[in-house]
Fold this protein.
Amino acid sequence: MTPARFLPLAFLCLLRPAAAADDWPKLLFKETSHDFGTVARGAVAEYRFQMENPYLEDVHIKSVSSSCGCTRPAVTKPLLKTYETGEIVATLDTRRFLGQKDATLEVDFDRPFPARFRLHLTSYIRADVVFEPGEVQFGSVAQGQSVRKRVTVTYAGRPTWRVAEAGVDSAALGLEIAEIDRSIDPQTKVGKVVYELCVTLKEDAPPGYFKNFVILRTDDPNQQTARIPLTVEGLVVPSLTVNPAVLMLDVVPAGESRSKNVVVRGQKPFKVVGVEGPDPRFRFRFPETAKPYQVIVVEFHAGDRPGKVSGKIRIKTDLPGTEAVEVSVDGQVAAPSAPKRGGG
């Protein structure tokens, strides 16, 4: 029986261009609409529509256009083969456009059949609240390092306006907020309120890419516009990297040995202080001097026990606050060959 996942493949193969429905691209997308909510003027607002090709045929995006100049679309990968993934990135222009904004992205496909599919976006860009800069961008930060970024939040309007609450959706980030100015224009009677946001990437932040949000809640009576997000983005670079991540032993005949190298790199010189293998058949050799990279010789002695070889190699170093790095092992010990019988 054909698995359910492959039904779209067979279905699309039967379609003729004249009969191909325009909504066949719908199966490519996880989401077909997005609401940015309330966005401050100058804030960086971006949404990525995820795509995956479930069809046997290649899918090609000819072009993408927007019904509103407030939204700029881009395609990360126009050609998708079976099960390949890509994104349509929608970026909101919060400096030139204000107020309620609705945009429709028209995605034109020319393969496997011509079709036009629409994605929908909505947003409300506040003219009275400005972020400077428009996002918290940490860039690349070494693991174990703490970095602090500041953002100015400026409001123009009601003299009594205030930020009632500020929070962040990640334990790896610290947040402080302070009011640094409040004044009233004597002629226009328009109030000006300025806050300073300090966002800290903590020392114990885990390695990897992150994208989080600082959420400001103001005392505006309209609850839909009172919640204002601020994007926080960055990359925590691991203190140590290991290559290869998976050590392939392949097939080792019983009674024989196999030798492989594993390279560990650090951001500064370090020593390897110990290596543990999945079982006693593994032995290790490594230098005793500190270097920015270390080459570990992994020796596997198969013995006479056939079967699959798997598990983890754990490499410990003298770098403070760094967990052991791990290498997965994959291989097979082949059964001894039966002796050949002599001719009679």
In short: Residues 240-334 form a domain with the Immunoglobulin-like fold (CATH 2.60.40.10).
